[in-house]
Amino acid sequence: MSTFTEKEDAFFIEPSGRLNKGTEAIRKSWENFFASLDSIHGDIKDISYFREGDGVIAVGMVVYKRKMKNHEPEEKVVIWTDYRRKENGKWVYVFRHAHWPVSPPPY
Prior knowledge:
There is one protein chain. The chain is mostly beta strands. The chain has one helix at 23-35; strands at 11-13, 19-21, 37-52, 55-68, 74-87, 90-99. The chain has a 6-stranded mixed β-sheet, with helices on one face. Strand 4 (55-68) and strand 5 form a beta hairpin. The termini are far apart.
């Protein structure tokens, strides 16, 4: 999975909150996700980048229009944070944390 670092300290937190550590777990997570879809389209609504050390932190929001197998089409908003750095001349994720926004608590 060349999108993520090959180092074993890579991790991905799915929007559901599930933690995937290491490249094999990350690969399996993405394989399962795409196998569950009939279709998906993402529209990035916001993204910001911040330099940090030898890499870049990104924070953003994407709106997905997707059709899960055996379900009605739906729209999902995902907020993410990730850290990317260059390895062997290619930008790769070291970590990615994505989640569904939650409603703020009532005050």
